[in-house]
Amino acid sequence: xxxxxxxxxxxxxxxxxxxxxxxxxxxxxxxxxxxxxxxxxxxxxxxxxxxxxxxxxxxxxxxxxxxxxxxxxxxxxxxxxxxxxxxxxxxxxxxxxxxxxxxxxxxxx
Length: 109
Hints:
Layout (H helix, E strand, L loop, with lengths): L6 H11 L8 E7 L3 H12 L8 E8 L5 H7 L6 E6 L4 H10 L8
Parallel strand pairs: 1-2, 2-3
């Protein structure tokens, strides 16, 4: 688990976690807050898609959930190329921006 409480930590994690030379063609960003059951459904659907697991990554931003979101994400660590990040609750826009910061792809939208 990573904490996104300080920009210095975030920038350090970015440089340690990703290399632009090893960019994946697809990054799926999921931002969630106390929606563990819906998250389970979403992650389960990603396990059944046809794109090879070495062609994509799932970046999960937990926006301060107090439910079992972390446990749900942990259950999919072996089934998906999943990276879990935790931040104190700051809202969807903040979570989305943090998620975009963790993907190495050049096109972000």
